[in-house]
Amino acid sequence: MCRWLAYYGSPILLDELLYKPEHSLIDQSKHARMGVETLNGDGVGVGWYPDFATGSDGPVTPAQYRSTGPAWGDMNLRDLAGHVRSPLFFAHIRASTGTPVQQTNSHPFRRGRWLWMHNGAISRFHELKRDLLLSVDAALLPDIQGSTDSELMFYLALSFGLEEDPPAAVARMIRLVEETGAKHGIDNPLQMTVATSDGERVWVFRYSTERKSRSLFFSTAPETLHRLYPENAVFSGLSPETRIVVSEPLGDLPGAWNEVPESTCGIIQPGMDELIPLNPFA
Question: Which keywords describe this protein according to UniProt (predicted)?
């Protein structure tokens, strides 16, 4: 399927996470340890916000770079990552589940100030696509550019109120996919880890119908890591609120990574972060 990471915290260069760690996202594009596929070479993308704050002209709109080639050979991404510094960014490497390898199918997806990326799949998507499309707000339909289940999930969530209440909107999207899958006789229609952001907060979701979701981890607080590894200067330079969420850990430091619980929504925000249950049928 795919691998992704979301970063929130002190502004850093993108290559600090995309290239430099022992098991960086670019390394994972060739040597994934926890994914369905070892290779994730069907496209790469990054989306980043220049700042957390709302600008004088309104909410900050994220920048975006997406390509169709494998991440390990993308020289434009390598150059960009060494020059762009951001306090909040997404990065994604794609392994297609059947839809074409094209730029509009590379993650993250963007609409307005929102970013969205996904690892997983809607089972037998080609059978469910028409029914699901009918639930997208008619005003949003012209904005769908690609053909993936991931982008359709984004627009369903937008239709269900993502901009007002992300956990409720994603829960409603999940419920629709599960109910539609059941009508078509599909036992386990949904597998997902999702990240979305409005530039001020990040929401991450881990869920699957079969309750055996794809892997997802969040980083330990920097002050804890600094106590565990006082010789590592990287940890001393990060703000206390810095967090990284990844499909699989970027290294093997004991105590650095924590698994996101099954059927959970995580909220990364100023102040106290949250982990809340994700039960679409509650």
Answer: Glutamine amidotransferase, Transferase
Nearest residue to 107 (alpha-carbon basis) of 153, 65, 136: 65
Specify whether domain 2-277 bears CATH 3.60.20.10. Answer: yes
pLDDT above 70: percentage of residues in the chain = 94
State residue 62 phi and psi, 5-degree precision. -75, 150
Domain ranges of the chain: 2-277
Separation between Cα atoms, residue 33 and residue 53, nearest integer Å: 36
Contact yes or no for 45/92 (Cβ under 8 A): yes
Q: Is 265 a catalytic residue?
A: no
Q: What value, to the nearest 5°, has the Cα angle with vertex 201 and ends 198 and 202?
A: 90
Q: DSSP of 111-171, one letter per residue?
A: ETTEEEEEEEEETTHHHHHHHHHTTS-TTTGGG--S--HHHHHHHHHHHTTTTT-HHHHHH
The whole-model pTM stands at: 0.94
- Give the single-character DSSP code of 62: P
Residue 246 · residue 240 · CB < 8 Å:
no
**pLDDT, tens digit (0-9, with 9 covering 90-100), for 63-89:** 999 999 999 999 999 999 999 999 999
pLDDT per residue as tens digits for the range 147-189: 999 999 999 999 999 999 999 999 999 999 999 999 999 999 9
- Residue 30's identity, in one-letter code, is K
Q: Please give the radius of gyration of the chain, using alpha carbons only, rounded to the nearest integer.
A: 18
Q: What distance in Å separates the CA atoms of residue 260 and residue 257, rounded to the nearest whole number?
A: 10
